[in-house]
Amino acid sequence: GINYGLLGDDLPPPEQAVALIKSMGFGQVKIFDSDPNILNALANTSLRVVMAATNEELETLAASPAAAAEWLDQQVRPHLPAARIRMITVGNELLSHPEINQPRWPLLLPAMQNLQEALQAAGLSHQIKVSTCIAMDALNVSY
């Protein structure tokens, strides 16, 4: 698979980026949010998609199962089944940079649980898994 990030100043439009990803023979792509333009470009391709709920969305997802279901209805369901979404990562490297992210740490597990519950209620838990991304700096400390 390949990561498809949007930090840059000379990026091709999503349709061109997806064509390039396909031409390189990748079968899976990870995006770092739920950008509808990218998800639309990934629709009706053979690419499996890992998408993300951003660190900024944790509070919403952790609030309640109903809030997570609403996020799912707005960010994911409109793109199914055309986009082959197989996983949603909740947060990005949240456990890194404690000076910035530590206030959000208690939100991670409830957000993941609420999103899993929303996927189950929508009948999508067999198709879409929930996880989180941990940075390599987590390996800095060895016991």
UniProtKB/TrEMBL annotation:
It comes from the Eukaryota. GO terms for biological process: carbohydrate metabolic process. Keywords: Glycosidase, Hydrolase. InterPro entries: GH, Glyco_hydro_17, Glyco_hydro_17_plant. GO terms for molecular function: hydrolase activity, hydrolyzing O-glycosyl compounds. Pfam families: Glyco_hydro_17. Belongs to the glycosyl hydrolase 17 family. This is Glucan endo-1,3-beta-D-glucosidase.
